[in-house]
Specification:
The chain has about 90 residues and is mainly α. The longest helix has 18 residues. The protein is flat and about 60 Å long.
């Protein structure tokens, strides 16, 4: 095996082993889930706005237990366009 190929194989094996053991960097961020759960989503009234807000709050992990630090204001525009032949 070539020396460059061996190095690549060792790097790949090390990456796989470190990802399996739960390795986290010493000075790394803990993650963004705490900040995402503190985003309040504002949507327009109506069914589409309600569904958008529910999807975003579910994706962000918002439970309403903590006061929001951030506010995300959205607007919804709905256009219909025929997809088939007339």
């Amino acid at each position: 095996m070539m020396p460059g190929g061996r190095r690549l194989l060792l790097a790949l094996a090390g990456t796989v082993l470190l990802s399996g053991c739960g390795f986290t960097p010493l000075y790394g961020e803990a993650g963004v889930s705490g900040a995402l759960s503190r985003i309040a989503v504002t949507t327009p009234d109506g069914r589409l706005g309600y569904r958008l807000r529910e999807q975003l709050e579910d994706a962000f992990g918002r439970d309403g237990a903590q006061a929001p630090l951030y506010r995300l204001a959205t607007e919804v525009e709905h256009k219909r366009r025929p997809l088939g032949r007339r």
